[in-house]
Predict the 3D structure of the following.
Amino acid sequence: METKIYTIDKAHIDMDKIKAAADILARGGLVAFPTETVYGLGGDAMDARASEKIYAAKGRPSDNPLIVHIADMKALEEIAVHVPESAYALAERFWPGPLTMILDKSDRVPSETTGGLSTVAVRMPSHPIALELIRASGTYVAAPSANTSGRPSPTMASHVIEDMDGRIEAIIDGGKVGIGIESTIIDLTCEPPMILRPGYITREMLLEVLDEVDVDQAILTENTDKNFKPKAPGMKYRHYAPKGELTIVEGTPDHVAAVINALTKQAQSQGLLTAVIAAGETASRYDCPNVFTIGTRSSEESIAANLYDVLRKMDDLHMDVIYSESYAGGGLGQAIMNRLLKAAGHKVIDADTGRHQHTLIENGRAKARS
Ligand code: AMP
Ligand code: MG
């Protein structure tokens, strides 16, 4: 199949291109499009065959449900039932935006879209191209991240082309996305509501609207138990892992630089291609020839926005061994470290003590498991 590329400027949306892409969705085809979080791989959420095509294009296990994207509140009533007051309060505050809510599904949503679950994940994205596309499609759009399953989520159209060219009908190139990590997922079918995946909307922000918010332990810990079942089925799969071996080194900056410099030297002497992922503030401390600046510590947003692009570069450049600084810290720290720890298979070195450990994160800080 030849994949069409529609380049659209989000500040001046070409409605003819939107219409062409929306027609593909309405006919049951797949279109990748930008959202404010990452690029989505869209298909008609109300068409079981379109959902099946999404799983096939991504190579995604079919028990890993899709998020349904909507453009107006009326849609909520059509795809969900028993919608609690809290959903309206959260929508009022955070929609359109990077928050996904889990609700009981209505009979109209095919079980293929929800991976066989009786609940449905719903989000109203804020990206203007996404909103126009959903509106023009005349339906609701199931859209997981537009990467091959197991690769980092795409944050620019070139990433989508790498993974999806020839597998889907069209890709809308709307430039680099703003946030760069996937939406926060909150389950509203339980009491108190529970965060299943951390994202741009933090627990503190949710607590401005809700009295109580729990956090699924699956996002804090590594899971070695085969029978373990996180509430968001997707969280059990190993995501975002670069092909090279990634280790996070945390501690005081001087110790981190000393440890990473010693380890990269050792790896290079064995003929291994070696990389360092560092913040702008500390990048010049590393002797390694391949230092990748991920952003600046003065803006966690910049680190989130570049994270997946940097992880993809590790594969593009065939890096064998990769050391990354830790970016635990403020509000977005938990969401960033959730992704980075997964990418590293939870391997962390504490540069202050020299200890190698598998960690969990708490309040955004990596913490040794006792
Ligand atoms: P992605 O579409 O790639 O952003 O991944 C969607 C995430 O949402 C996966 O981790 C899914 O397991 C999760 N998800 C989607 N629908 C549900 C649902 N009904 N209940 C719990 N988690 C869900
Ligand atoms: Mg994904």
Summary: The longest strand covers residues 355-362. The two ends are 52 Å apart (CA to CA). Confidence is low (pLDDT under 50) at residues 361-370. Residues 144-145, 153 surround magnesium ion (ligand 2) (CB under 6 Å).
